[in-house]
Amino acid sequence: MAAGAWAGGTTQIVDAKIAEVTERGFVLQVGTDSISVEDSGSTKFWKGKAAVKRGAFAVSDLVTARIKTSTDTPELREIADRESWKWLDNVRKQPVVGTIEKVDPKYLTLKLEDGTSFSYRATEKSKVEMKGRPDMKLTDLEVGQKVYAKGRTLATLDTWLALITDTPLAPKAVKGKSSGGKRGSKAKVLPAHGSIDGLVLGHTAQFHMFDIAHDAATLHITYTSTTKFILDGIAVKAVAIQPNQKTIVFYSRDKFGRIVASRVELSTR
Predict the structure, then answer these.
(1) CA distance to 16, 190, 219, per residue, from 215 (Å)
(2) How many Å apart are CA 217 and CA 168, to the nearest integer?
(3) What separation in angstroms does the CA of 106 have from each of 89, 122, 123, 126?
C-alpha cells in the first residue's frame, strides 16, 4: 500500500520492490504496476540507517521511495529500505538525543542513542542553547558533548538543525492524540470492502492512484482497467478525476492492503 502523503500534489511516497536497476535509475514495482524512475545528483539514498550510494540497492530490495511525478519521467528524490525510512522519518520529525561526533562549517553529526549517526545541515541561523545561554554558537560546541537536537526538513531533503541544547526536548505531539491525559479520537479502520465518500485531493495517473480526504484522513485509492468511473451521471475515463470533486468510492482491499476501487462516482455539483 502506498505510504505517506502528497507534497504540493507533485510528490508521492510509495512502498515498492526494485524490479530492475538501470543506468539512469530504477524500475519499481508498486503493487501490480511497474514504474520507471530516474535518479540524479541530488537523490538521497539510505540503507542500514545510513546515507549510501545508489550502488547499495539491488533487484528485489523492498524500499520506500519519494518520487516527483510532475516531470515526464518520474524523478526519484529519495529511496530507503523500509527500516531506514521509519528511522529517518522519526529523526526528521522528533527531537533526538545523542553525542556530538563531528562539527564542520556545513554539518553537525550526532551519534544517536541507538548507535546510528545522523548529519544535520547547520547554519548561522541554527539556534544553540547550552548552559542556559541562548546566545551560543556552533563553534562553542565540542565533540563528545551530550545534546538534544531538533531538525526541520528542507526542500532539498537535508535536515536543517533548528535547535541544539543540553536540555531535554519534549516530543512532537502525534496527530489524533491530545494533551492533558485525555484520549484523542482514533482513526476509523476501513472494512475489507464497502464504500467511502470524500473529496478528491489529487490524481497520479502514472500510478493508477488518486487521493481523497475522508473523515479528516487522506486515503490512497488504486484503480485498475476494470474500474468504472461516473462523472455527474455520465460514464467517463480515469483522466476525468480532478481535485475538489466529490466522490463515492466502491472498493475492496487486495492482499497488499490497498484500497482498490471497482466503481468511482464523481460529482462537480
Answers:
(1) 27, 11, 10
(2) 32
(3) 22, 5, 7, 11
Distance CA 237, CA 19 (A): 29
Extended beta strands in 82-144, E state: 96-103, 107-112, 117-121, 127-130, 133-136
Contact 31/253 with Cβ under 8 angstroms? no
In the three-class reduction of DSSP (H, G, I as helix; E, B as strand; rest coil), residue 111 is classed as: strand
Helix (H, G, I), strand (E, B) or coil at 89: helix
> Is residue 50 a contact partner of residue 87, using CB atoms and an 8 Å limit?
no
Cα separation of 116 and 86, whole Å? 13
Q: pLDDT tens, position by position, for the chain (269 residues)? A: 333 333 344 788 888 999 999 999 999 988 777 888 999 999 999 999 999 999 999 999 999 999 987 776 789 999 999 999 999 999 999 999 999 999 988 999 999 999 999 999 999 999 999 888 877 889 899 999 999 999 999 999 999 999 999 999 888 765 544 444 444 444 456 788 999 999 999 888 877 889 899 887 888 898 999 999 999 999 999 999 999 999 999 999 877 677 899 999 999 98
Residue type, 146: K
For residue 207, give the C-alpha cell: 500510478
Which cell goes with 71? 516531470
φ and ψ at residue 91, rounded to 5 degrees: -65, -40
